[in-house]
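Entry type: protein chain
Record version: 2
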Amino acid sequence: MDIRRVAAYAAIYLLWGGAYVAIRRLVEVLPPFFAAGLRYGLAALFLLPVLLLFARPAITRRQAFNGAWSGITLLVFGYSVVFWTEQRLPSWLVAVLMSTTFLWTYLGESLVLRSYRFRLRMLPLLLLGIAAMPLVAGGRGADGRAISVMPAIATLLCAMCWSCGSLAVKAIDMPHSPVQTAAIQMGVSSIILLIFSWFLGEWRRMPSLGQTAWWQPAVAMAFLVIGSSVLGFVAYHWLMAHEPASRVATSAYVNPLVAMLVGIVAMHEHNTALQLAGAAA
């Protein structure tokens, strides 16, 4: 197997799995949408020197526009909601709910894009995954109280938006370089999220430097920017250009396992046997 594919899949499997725990640590200090906007803004700035040094092939206006709106679908309507829900749900639970991206991506790729025929033998597995969601959502949240339905529903809608964005990336004219695509998507999404954060009043609720230990959220932000965004998101777009979208979406099945292990060990998150059974399904 191509070593580039192995490295790219390892990035979205492992780095994106650990991202859920890093986000949980970050939103304990920073407001959620400000944290999301800052993450993507720093990542876009990190990619800027690469774009200046390797500006070829040139990006057309259509490609720039497509990169912008697909990025908004993926990161603003999609993944940024994870920052909000992780204030209310354990990180591993959010990762499990986000694993439904494979369901929507598979259905969209086979029934909408018609990249390949829908296989009936996949139907029981897909239905089993949907049926397991109530089991996963049953139990206690990050604060020890019963899990609220609204954050769980918001996460499922977030997964649908991510799948729609992924399918769009496969169907529209995008920049040829994955670095160009990632930089446009994260840069535009950062601006929108920071403006949205300002309208929500999050900027007025920023903690002072003396209120908390900043080294832990700083490490979490560094991991999210360099590991999950720069390496992970660029790897994701490289895979989307070379692999079926549903195959790339299999990362959604590995991410919860990574998030669960790291969350239990590093964040002392709790789960029940019923939730574990739903996650396994």
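Comment: Residues 3 and 9 are 10 Å apart (CA to CA).
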